[in-house]
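Form P-L/3: holo structure prediction, ligand 2-acetamido-2-deoxy-beta-D-glucopyranose.
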Amino acid sequence: MASSGSMPCLLAALLFTSLTLPRSAAAPTATRACDTVDDGYRCSPKTSHFWGQYSLWFSVPSDVDVDPPEHCDVSFASVLSRHGGRDPTMSKTLLYGATVGLIQNTSTAFPDEFAFLKDYEYNLGADLLTDAGRQEMVNSGAHFYRRYKDFLKGKTPFVRSSGQARVVESANKWLEGYAQAAHKKTGAIDVSIPEAAGVNNTLSHEICTNFEDGPLSDIGNKAQDIWVAKFVPPIQARVNGKLGTTLSTTEIIYLMDLCPFTTLASPTAQISDFCHLFTEDEWQQYDYYESLGKWYGYGNGNPLGPTQGIGYVSELLARLTEKPVQVVGSINSTLDKDFATFPLHRKVYADFSHDNDMTGVLAALGLYNNTKPLSNSTIESTNETKGYSAAWTVPFAARIYVEKLSCKKAKEEFVRIIVNDRVQPLDFCGGDRYGRCTLSKFVESQSFTRTGGHWNQCFTSS
Ligand SMILES: *[C@@H]1O[C@H](CO)[C@@H](O)[C@H](O)[C@H]1NC(C)=O
Ligand SMILES: *[C@@H]1O[C@H](CO)[C@@H](O)[C@H](O)[C@H]1NC(C)=O
Ligand SMILES: *[C@@H]1O[C@H](CO)[C@@H](O)[C@H](O)[C@H]1NC(C)=O
Ligand SMILES: *[C@@H]1O[C@H](CO)[C@@H](O)[C@H](O)[C@H]1NC(C)=O
Ligand SMILES: *[C@@H]1O[C@H](CO)[C@@H](O)[C@H](O)[C@H]1NC(C)=O
Ligand SMILES: *[C@@H]1O[C@H](CO)[C@@H](O)[C@H](O)[C@H]1NC(C)=O
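OUTPUT (holo model):
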């Protein structure tokens, strides 16, 4: 408006009004919701999208248009979802509380951004969803509904949940969000599979002995330890220098963990004060630390990681082809041979699980077969454009959509896989520029699952 000096006043006023009204009518940035149905978590993305699996779900940028191509209709939709944001696990919540106590007992100063710690009261719970985590799941149900709206008319999702309380509650919250978006009542959980020793559960790993115990169960931690020794010392020196403490490298990681967990403890998921103790670079290093844990603990970096996902992928192939499930891995054949607990002719499925299990499923599918193995001593990339990121794959309320498309003039249906809104290229089955493979080529590509992965190595003694 500065250059409009010669413009008649009235016109200038009109222009001014029409240019500024839409903006001032919107809520000021500070009070806009951090978590949203369409985009997920969007406050401070340069740090909050780098919290590994503790990130709140956000819509990951996709190189391929996520909308189905023209002349294609969705003919099948399924989601495998992680539970929503939670309090720390029981063992961690005790350790975090002790770390805060230690800082408060031994600090000689609380300067600058550390000032809040002086009177901070640790009161996080354990294991269960927080209100912000519940909202993530309500939003996720609405997100799914909005995406598949036209296709979903007259259909009810078949819903399975792993049996842990936070997963079951997540499934119910998802159904609530779905129902709200659909303006009608929708189904309930159809099958809940217990998480317990000796139970075959395709939504929760447990029974592959050599994966659960022994050397393979530790390689994720070992890779993380090497990276910790590299990235934490400078942070440790800075933090201890400011506080006058002698926090260990592990306690520095706990202090970083407290950023996502205290953010999740805010009912509206406002970025917490803990988050401001660290820089953008440090959050990228932390994200890489968490990614290493997933990659080597449960993904391609673990010789038996992908094998943990074959049970679920076998169920997915059965649903996609409407053919009886081929029993592999941790499938419970009693459940999966019964149409009441494993129907084959439904078109909409929703399953609820955990990050580690989903990491195994993504690996079993072969989605990251061409990803360079993660180095334990240098960050190669903190996202999937060049590498692998736990924040892009298994954040809280993560969702893997598998859809079929029926397209004009095509003899066969197509399959697409969309991980947190990012369309996967599916190079291994001839994925086209829309990320589509024909159903038969997709099934063919899943030979790892169809031949039982390395399940036989679960029980051999070495
Ligand atoms: C901090 O000091 C209090 C009071 O002396 C004590 O009860 C508590 O155990 C201490 N906590 C830690 C983590 O050292
Ligand atoms: C399989 O599922 C059935 C039916 O729920 C259950 O009774 C049985 O204990 C399960 N078996 C295993 C090994 O998980
Ligand atoms: C760390 O990476 C190096 C180089 O790839 C490898 O030789 C070593 O075994 C790795 N160590 C762990 C514990 O992951
Ligand atoms: C459970 O899994 C084990 C290991 O794969 C298998 O031997 C057993 O038959 C399965 N049980 C059922 C009920 O499917
Ligand atoms: C991924 O790699 C594994 C191990 O090399 C292989 O067995 C599997 O077929 C590959 N998956 C796909 C989809 O290419
Ligand atoms: C992904 O990582 C690359 C290189 O590490 C970086 O340049 C790019 O900005 C990142 N993209 C997103 C969306 O974070």
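COMMENT: The pocket of 2-acetamido-2-deoxy-beta-D-glucopyranose (ligand 4) is lined by residues 200, 330, 332-334 (CB under 6 Å).
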